[in-house]
Each structure stands twice: as C-alpha cells, then as structure tokens.
Amino acid sequence: MKIEIVQPEGWKKPKGYANAIALSGASKLVFVAGQVAWDAQEKLVGRGDFGAQFEQALRNVVTVLRASGAEPAHIVRLTVYVTDKQMYVAHAKKIGVLWKELVGKHYPAMSLVEVADLLEEGALVELEATAAIA
Questions:
Q1: Most Cβ neighbours (<10 Å): which of 16, 25, 101, 127?
Q2: Could you give the 3-state DSSP secondary structure of residue 5?
Q3: Domain ranges for the chain
Q4: Residue 95 backbone phi and psi in degrees, to 5
Q5: What is the DSSP annotation of 56-110?
Q6: Alpha carbon of 67 to those of 17, 32, 99: distances in Å?
C-alpha cells in the first residue's frame, strides 16, 4: 500500500494535518468510532481538563487501531469534535506534543468541528479516525 500526501502546487504547507491523503493498494480499511476520554471501564477521565481528555481520547484511538492490526502511521483521516474550539486552541501546544509522542510526525487529513455537546456527559473532545493498512 502506498500513502501519498497530497499537496497542491503553490499552496502553503499545512501545519499539523494534510490537505488530503491518497491511497493505492490498500487491502484493509479500519474505521474507528468516536473515542472520548474513557478508560477501559468506560469511566471518563480528566473531567474539565481538555488536555487530559484529548490525550486519553488519542490513546484510545491508538489502542483500537493496534487491536485491528494497524498503527498510528496508518491513520488517513481524523475528525476532532470539540465542545469549545477556544479550548482546543488554548491547548494546541500540548496537543502537538501529545501527537508527536503517540503518533509521531505523521499528519493525516484532519477536520476540527465545534459541536454543541457530546453524548458522554462531561466529554470535551471526541476523535474519529480512519486508517488504511496493507
């Protein structure tokens, strides 16, 4: 499988995401359901702490990927749902450090969506991912 980062000619290179990812030869796609900051017993961790919740949600995505045989570098799309985009912006540096720690320097196509609320009471962030593995 080949994962190609799509960068239109003349466009400024995005920071922390890719405009698009093109796949060729993928034999398995993994669709990770929205992950909030639950621990293994579905108890919300980091109540009121956006950074802690983002970290746990990202760890959950990585754990689900590995259970499917995928790795973080196989992520081709990530959607970040937040209840407060200013909280995301305020924690951007910490998120960047966590991303590099858990995923590395791989940046998939990403979207950030501010929502009125999330299903899990107290959740501030939810991550949904798609991965492609050969």
A1: 127
A2: strand
A3: 2-133
A4: -60, -40
A5: HHHHHHHHHHHHTT--GGGEEEEEEEES-HHHHHHTHHHHHHHHHHHT-S---EE
A6: 24, 11, 19
CATH architecture entry for 2-133: 2-Layer Sandwich (3.30)
Q: For residue 1, what pLDDT band results from cuts at 50, 70 and 90?
A: confident
Question: What is the pairing mode between strands 75-82 and 125-133?
Answer: antiparallel
Yes or no: say if 104 and 31 are a contact pair by the CB < 8 Å rule: no
- The first and second tokens of residue 21, run together, are 């990812």
For residue range 72-124, what is the model confidence (pLDDT) as tens digits?
999 999 999 999 999 999 999 999 999 999 999 999 999 999 999 999 999 99
pTM of the model: 0.87
Residue 20: enclosing H or E segment and its boundaries? strand 20-24
Condensed to tens digits (0 to 9), the pLDDT of residues 26-50 reads 678 899 999 999 998 989 999 999 9
Cα gap 67→71, rounded to integer Å: 9
- Tokens coding 68: 């499917």
